[in-house]
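Q: You know discrete backbone vocabularies at least as well as I do. I have my own habits and do not want them to colour yours. No explanation is needed for now; the record alone will do.
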Amino acid sequence: MGPDPAAAWERRLERAGDLGPVHPSLLRYLALPLLRRLEDGLGSETGQRKPVLALNGPVGAGKTSLGGALEHLAALGGLRLVVVSIDDLYLPADERRRVLAGNPFGVSRVPPGSHDLPLLLAALNGWRAGGPLRLPRFDKTLAGGEGERSGWREQPADALVIEGWLMGCRALGPLALEAWLQSGAGLEELTTEERQWLPIWDRHLASYGDLWSACDGLWLLHPQRWSLPRRWRFQAEAIQRRAGGGWLTADKLDGLVRATVRSLPPALYQDPLLRRQPSLELQGGVILDGRRRCRPLGAQLSSLASASSAIG
């Protein structure tokens, strides 16, 4: 009998040292299973494409810190893992302003349509064909807080995780969306203008299908309540300000957070991710409480979806 892969990753976690503010339960219930899945993908038959996993989590959930921990743990196992935020793939500022002109949140980034999907897909194809992984960097402090690209990074990688708040979300299409709009279920918090923009966001989201097809599995950081992301993001901004690094006014920060829970209302787009999708397999994830402690997704995914479908 060969060595136990799960035990090997547990030992790497024990010797990893300080992994920042990531809660230990998140490491155990998400990081280690995800890394084992990547390792399995690399160990599969010759000709298998390099593995790419999608990590979905709301603003403030700790995706950036988790990404750093994943890269550190992967290196201990000899795995060259790169964790990329879909935020790094924002379109240039002028293009984003055009795409999002007049939106009800007053934002120039975040909603569907603000990402450079052709660039990301070309980068993935080149990397899977044997080239280095070359992606832009995005600095949210540039352009007066609207953010702008700031250079490029190019590096070798065995595996990739792409994280973002809308990863894996599926467009409903005009007929299904109209039925939701007529019923009003799950849309109680939206203003009239926000409802009017839902067909626009849904059309933009449809263009992300090729990216989801390029991914080999989906992992979730799912909040117990959809009021939590706003609290988490404002807490993070307060910490940044105390450290001398805060940069968003309260109204701009509120607009960015609202854009994530109202351009794609959770009841229509996020909670359905808790049910398995044939084209992007849900492989694992956690439910986060208000202190970002977590429990693993259980077998009753449909009941979890029902329990977490309330907005606010």
The radius of gyration is 19 Å. Residues 30 and 285 are 6 Å apart (CA to CA).
